[in-house]
Protein 1
Amino acid sequence: MLKLALIVLIILAIFTIQTQKMRHAVVYLGAFSLTISFVYLLYNAPDVAIAEAIIGSTLSTILYLVALQKYKIFTVYYCLSEEEFKDQSHLTTEHLQFNKLLDKYCAKQELEPQIIYTVDNVDTIKAHHQYALIVLNESSHITIWGHPENYKLDSIIAFFDSEIHFKIPIEFIKVEEVIE
Amino acid sequence: MNDHSDLISKTLPITYPFVLLFGIYIVVNGHVTPGGGFQGGAVIASILILKYLIDPSVETSLKKIRTIEKLALLLIFLFPLGFLLTFIHLQFPMFNCSYLILMNLLISIKVACGMSIIFIRFVFYETR
């Protein structure tokens, strides 16, 4: 039994290092902790086994998962014209309302929004920058481009549909993946 | 974790009392069976994680927990001094068992508060 558990430990350790996705590595690490607490139990150390099972496989796993969740940065580009950039005339009530809604969405999904105001064209941003969303704010109309790898786009659309009192029509465009 | 799941939010609150009972059992029986203040405190602290899994938007205030933790630390310093320096453990040996249980309880409160503070600070306040 002990030898079997030790072999499982080595296999889990190799899996932890070799996986591509961080999330899988965290889960393998939790399984590793659980197995090593069983090994402690076989070595007649139940005290250490309880502490390892609680701290190693529960607390630290959840802390790592939350950290991974927080690490994801959600980059939002606002496209403005040069006059808007100078005299700040884009800060209308609708725009502020939209900002508040976006912040609410990010807080709900536990994303870290990183908002950048640019005067660049939409196409240049699409070609040269890492982005999750591009927002083009015209009067009485908002256009949003979503990155092809942005898997949150559907939930964003659902979120803005559910906010009924937000009057301005929003057009969502899913950018097609460019094949090189 | 990010989406609010009905299944989790309805089933996990049932486990609250059992987790609490298990933690108290580990603490109170710490001097005869495996376990003790640290392990029981860690079990009790995991209630906070359950609460976070059920509803991530609810924030808990740090100030109260900090005060309780400091109070527990003060008592942990004071009780052994008062118990050992007055030689009660030699005159009345039957108090030794209750002394151990009391110290385990104090340590468990301290550990639970400390782990809760770590978790709350990390989850609600730290951003990158």
Note: Chain A touches chain B at residues 46-47, 49-51, 54-55, 58-59, 62-63, 65-67, 69-71, 107-110, 112 (CB under 8 Å).
Protein 2
Amino acid sequence: MEIRPILSALMRSKVAMILIGLQVALTLAIVCNALFIIGQRLDRMHRPSGMNEADTFMVSSTGFGQNFDAFATLKADLALLRGIPGVADVTPANSVPMSEGGWSTGLNLQPRQRTSSADTALYLVDDHALDTFGFKLVAGRGFKPEEAAEVNFGDRLQPASIIVTRALADKLFPGGDAVGKQVYMDEDPPTSTIVGVIERAQQPWMSSSSVEMSTLVPAFMPYGKSTRYLVRTEPGRRDAVMKDVEQKLAEANHGRIVGRLRTIETVRAEAYAGDRAMAVILGGVIVALLLITALGIVGMASFWVAQRTKQIGTRRALGATRGDILRYFMTENFVITTLGLAAGALLTYAFNYWLITHYQAQRLPLAYLGGGVLALWLLGQIAVFGPATRASRVPPAVATRSV
Amino acid sequence: MLRMNHLSKVYRTHLIETHALRDFSIHVREGEFVAVTGPSGSGKTTFLNIAGLLETFSGGEFFLDGVDVRGLDDNARSRLRNAKLGFIFQGFNLIPDLNLFDNVDVPLRYRGFNAAERKRRIEESLTRVGLASRMKHYPSELSGGQQQRVAIARALAGSPRLLLADEPTGNLDSLMARGVMELLEEINRQGTTIIMVTHDPELAARAQRNVHVMDGQVTDLDDEPRLRQPQEAAPARREATATGVTA
Amino acid sequence: MSAPNPTPSRGPQPGLSLIAYYLQLGWRSLRRNPVLTALMVIGIGLGIAASMTTLTVLHLTGADPIPWKSDRLHYVQLDNWSAEQPARDDGSPPDQVTYRDAMALMSARKADKQAAMFKLSLPIQPENRELKPFQALGRVTYADFFAMFEPPFQFGAPWNRDQDEGHARVVVLTRALNEKLFGGQDSTGRSLRMNDVDYTIVGVLDEWKLRFRYYDVTNGAFADPDEFFMPLTTAVDLKQRSTGNNSCWQSPGDGWEAYLNSDCVWLQMWVQLDTPARLAEYRDFLNSYVSEQKKLGRFPRPLNNRLLDVNQWIVDQRVVSRDMEVQTGLAFAFLAVCLVNTIGLLLAKFTRKAGEIGLRRALGASRADVFRQFLVESGVVGLSGGVLGLGLTALGLVAVRALYSEYRSVAQLDWTMVLTTIALAVVSAVLAGLYPTWRACRVQPAAQLKV
């Protein structure tokens, strides 16, 4: 439509234009960066752990007293748990993915290596591990029952066989032939043989830079008098079985505390609570900000309409239709918004640059800017529609009123 | 050119009914310069608004340049206004944020002329009122008389069949008023029909014909066109009022 | 017109009565355009609430937890890490110390007070048969801990240094654990069975209002609070392994003794140094200690000891998370948008009143009078926005507590923050009102009077 006269009229009342433009610019910068952060958090939260999360839960047992036999209890508990109806399988497990606590070590290809070849999380499990966790074997085999050895806490782990994730196997042996290869879990022999490769098993630490590098070690190794078990139930029976398990474990042995029953879904929720909170808060900021900006546009546009009532009447008297007046205000908003968005694009990347330098953020993809620009164009048009409609209803007879 | 028969206009609020025009009839022929006079509240502004298609009427007939205006919707009336009418307001009603060129351009934009045609018409009409050299100036940089000339240029740019003037000199001092009046007379001589609403009898006397409105009715209808007497030496005596622009 | 201001016209303080008059005018004016006023108040309220919610969490998280002595408490870091790679990527030393170094520093007693400590979770076997055995979280440390971090006692007192040396089986309970075990009665002198060992209760803490556990940031400043305290010497005697973080750069070897002598770090070491001179002395002492250890073949890395005080340690360990800082930054950008919004709306409002201003000026109001009147009106908007913002801030903090369970202790409004909120709102609104007010003042007295 008539952009040039609108623009030159706007240049005569710069302050109002700058205020709305500035508001649009700041809004664009905040919305784009906040959306980008939300997007990254959602991506992070949707990383697969590699395990069955729907039907599994953890339970821990802590014995007390001098006569407590951790190994005997462990064996008895496993037999008890595997016999409970609804339980599909059970493995001892010192930790699970996403639990933010566990063990890690370096793996070496040579003895007495100065820096380790790869860092890995360790999951101490038995021969039921693959079935219980639901890890997918892609090469080699699972553990055999005789491979899980009893190890006193504080003694060196010297497993003859280990299973590694594909990411770890590829890092250690880029040729893809990890099965059958030897690695050093310590500086010195003996070595451990990789007997199997699983597709994926995340480390317990969600912020780890090597989150896909995990190793399964066949070992019964209570932490002092504490043991943890991972239980997988038949689909849909998890919550009922959980209560059953807690009760039966407690009844079976009074010399210990049964506790820390947590579903893996809870573990995931807690691991990502911070990310989720960030996403929710930023989402709230975005909504509030768009609301404020929309209200600001409504307020300013209403003011302009009120201020220019006479002018509108004159235009109507000179032959403008209602549609012409409506379009005038819609176009005016479009022009202001566009100017604001141009400044906002610069501001967006300035803000992004600040996040990059201070918070190791990544460069904002253009798609976010494009989306933000479209959203604000739309927002401006929706916000101005009400005042513009009111403007179009100004009767032409206003032109002849003396005040 | 303009014919109203038994026109009535009633304003209704939820409490009272006001008859602004009652059984109002008038006939203005092509080429006439008619002054509509009457005290304030008499209904002359209502007449002007209806004549200018700014307001609808409640009953009767109204033909504008042969077009039956009854039942035209808002858009059709806007288009008719744009094509056939030119307006001159007491307060000039220039758009303060636009320069003279863009102000004169306003009705032409709605007419849908192309850029070259608009430019030609704007320059021509500003030349006609003697302000072609100040095209890039803004209204606030002009005197009241000059502003009203711009308003006249804006009214003329679309080559209207009928010019409606609402107290065109009401906000001007006598010297400026005279200049504007002479310009209107000049325009009328060149063939444009003019209806001027005023409460100033001296000014009305300079029109070819006077129509007096009282209580919403035409009380003094002189149907015969009177030849205009050239009266160069009869300046309207008016108190000078403060000049200034209402925001 | 309602009842006029009762202040007598010849009163001694015409300035005050004028302010009251302006307040009245501002209030009326705001009521005349309820929609525009509501937009401004909501705008300011939302902006204030967003920034104050994040600022409250930031302020309470980053605030000095023990202001009267935070510069005297220092966290000891010694770099005993591998020659090949630093403990942390930025080259700083490990965030905990080894058992053997902690013991060496404890027995040297070179600081005014010193306490090594670690985290230990133990099964508690209550006397009361109605209570099932349960796990409790404890802090294993030295008698000096209580003098250094000053927890308040409800009953009894801390154990003493002799009991540290004597490996005494004593324990101090928190008020919460004492409530649970003994119904809140004075339990000092009674015994508590933990992991089949009987301990004598020597003291019970009163409510200890720690916003976060600054003395053990390594195991989570916002993790579950400690429930009991016992001598470190006793716990080591009983071969109780820490349930906190443990990092090794080389295998500790087999067995308990090997572990105690290893280069694994798992203890926190705090010292109190009462003067800068003492701090300098202690630095020298640490350096000479490490140099001696180097002669024994330990500490292969270059000398890299650190003695950060409480606040430096909190910053170093990023107790204030990056997320929180980003949120605060965004919240203030949000406030900026709200202020720009308010400037626009005030401008709109004041421009509409050009006629009124012209009239007042013609009736004798000076430019300064007009300025004050409109500034007061902006202030009224700010005050209303502040009150709304305070309510929204309270709601925002409820949301923060729901989203971040660990911030329960810091997402609370205190008086400072309430006053800051109101002040921020009024100052923001007045600042936002400056330009519109200045514009309003420029109205010429005569220009608006012509009808």
Note: Chain A has two domains: 3-46+274-400, 65-254.
